[in-house]
Specification:
370 residues, alpha+beta, Neuraminidase, 2 domains, 4-stranded antiparallel β-sheet, 25 strands, 24% helix, elongated, Gal_Oxase/kelch_b-propeller
C-alpha cells in the first residue's frame, strides 16, 4: 500500500521531544498542585484560628450572661417575701446585675410585655398639679419627684387630659367652655400650642397611629358630654366622630387592632369603637358610677379594672372575658398610663401613684405625692 504523501511520520527524535515536554508539564502541574494545597491549608488554618477566637468570645459572653441570670434568680428569691412593690423595684433597680441585664434589648422587650404603645426612653410618669402651671414628674425607678413650671397660656385645671407620645412628648387637652386648650410638651419641656378643640376635661386620650382619640368628659361643670373627637398629629386638625351611646366622664380607652376599647364612669357597659366603621359595639356589663382602667398585658390580652371592684381579662376577641381578681379603691386618674418593669402605673386625683402588676394581677398603692 502506498503512503499518503500529505502525512509525514514523526521521527524518533520528535517523539522524544514531545514526551519530554509532557513530562515537564506534568511535573509543573504537580508542583502547582502542591503549592495550591499548601496555600489552601494555610488559609484554612488562619480562618480556623479566627473562628476559634470568635467562638471562644461568644462562649465567654454566654457564660457571663448565664452568671447574670443566676444572679437575677438569686435576687428575685431574696425579694420574693417582700409585700411592697416599691421595695421590690428599689431592690431590683439598684442591683448591678439587673442593670447590666436590662441593657440587652430582647430582655428589656420581654420585661415590658409587648405593650403596643410607643416605648419611651425615660422611666417617668407625669401629671399637672391642680390649677397650676406645674408639671409633676415621677421617676419610676426610685419614685423621686420633680416639679417643673411650664410656660403655658393659662393654669391647667384639675382634670386636664394627657396622652404620652413618641420621643418623650406629652399631648395635653382640656378646659371648661368656651374652648378646650390644646398643646404638646416636648422632650425639653417646651410648649407647642395647637388649635383649640371642643370644651372637654376629666377623661382620657388614646394614641392610635398618627391620631389621638378623646371620648366624653365634662363639657361644663355639671354637664357630661357624649362627644367623640380625634386630633391628627399630621395635619393638627380636629375631626368629630360618632357620639358615645351614653354621656360619661372619665372614659378610659385602649387602642388595639383598629378598635378602641372604652368605658366611662357613667357607663354600665364595655364598648368597642371601630375606627374603620365609626360606630360602637356593646360587650360585657360593668359597674355604674365607678372609675375604671383599661390596659394591655401581653399581646393577646387586655384588662378592665374597676375601682374597688373586679379585674376582668380578655384574650382580645372581645368575648372570652374572665374574672381574675379584685381590686382596691382609686380616684379619678390624672396621668397617662405608663408600662414599666411589668406593671402599669398611673396617678389619681389625690396624687397617689398606683401600679397594676401584670404578672400577679393585683393593684398596689406605691406612694402619695404632694
Amino acid at each position: 500500500m502506498n503512503a499518503d504523501p500529505a502525512y509525514i511520520y514523526p521521527s524518533s527524535k520528535t517523539k522524544n521531544s514531545v514526551l519530554l515536554y509532557l513530562n515537564s508539564s506534568v511535573l509543573s502541574i504537580e508542583a502547582m498542585k502542591d503549592e495550591l494545597i499548601q496555600d489552601f491549608n494555610a488559609k484554612l488554618k488562619s480562618l480556623t484560628s479566627k473562628f476559634s477566637a470568635e467562638y471562644n468570645e461568644i462562649s465567654r459572653i454566654r457564660l457571663k450572661y448565664i452568671e447574670l441570670i443566676k444572679k437575677i434568680i438569686e435576687t428575685s428569691q431574696i425579694i420574693a417575701n417582700s409585700t411592697s412593690l416599691a421595695d421590690k423595684i428599689l431592690c431590683l433597680s439598684t442591683d448591678p446585675a439587673l442593670e447590666s441585664l436590662l441593657q440587652i434589648p430582647f430582655i428589656t422587650q420581654g420585661i415590658e410585655l409587648g405593650l403596643s404603645r410607643p416605648e419611651s426612653s425615660q422611666n417617668q410618669i407625669a401629671a399637672f398639679q391642680h390649677n397650676t402651671k406645674n408639671l409633676l414628674k415621677i421617676n419610676l425607678s426610685n419614685f423621686k419627684e420633680t416639679k417643673i413650671e411650664l410656660n403655658t397660656k393659662s393654669k391647667a385645671n384639675e382634670h386636664i387630659i394627657m396622652c404620652e407620645l413618641p420621643d418623650n412628648q406629652i399631648f395635653c387637652y382640656g378646659n371648661w367652655e368656651p374652648v378646650g386648650t390644646t398643646f404638646i410638651i416636648d422632650a425639653e419641656n417646651n410648649i407647642i400650642e395647637l388649635d383649640d378643640g371642643k370644651p372637654c376635661c376629666s377623661t382620657y386620650a388614646t394614641l392610635f397611629e398618627d391620631s389621638i382619640y378623646v371620648f366624653g368628659g365634662w363639657k361644663t361643670k355639671g354637664e357630661r358630654s357624649n362627644f367623640a373627637v380625634k386630633f391628627s398629629l399630621q395635619t393638627a386638625e380636629w375631626k368629630d366622630l360618632a357620639p358615645l351611646p351614653i354621656s360619661s366622664t372619665a372614659v378610659c380607652s385602649l387602642a388595639a387592632d383598629n378598635e378602641i376599647w372604652l368605658s366611662g364612669y357613667n357607663h354600665q357597659k364595655l364598648y368597642s369603637y371601630s375606627i374603620e366603621k365609626n360606630n360602637y359595639q356593646e360587650y360585657i356589663d360593668l359597674a355604674l358610677n365607678c372609675n375604671k382602667i383599661i390596659c394591655r398585658g401581653d399581646s393577646l390580652s387586655i384588662y378592665v379594672i374597676e375601682s374597688g371592684g373586679k379585674i376582668i381579662k380578655s384574650e382580645f376577641d372581645g368575648y372570652n372575658w374572665q374574672l381574675v381578681g379584685n381590686i382596691l379603691q382609686f380616684n379619678d386618674v390624672i396621668s397617662y398610663y405608663k408600662l414599666y418593669m411589668g406593671s402599669v402605673y398611673f396617678l389619681d386625683y389625690d396624687y397617689v401613684l398606683y401600679a397594676f402588676n401584670l404578672g400577679e394581677k393585683h393593684l398596689d398603692m406605691i406612694k402619695q405625692f404632694n
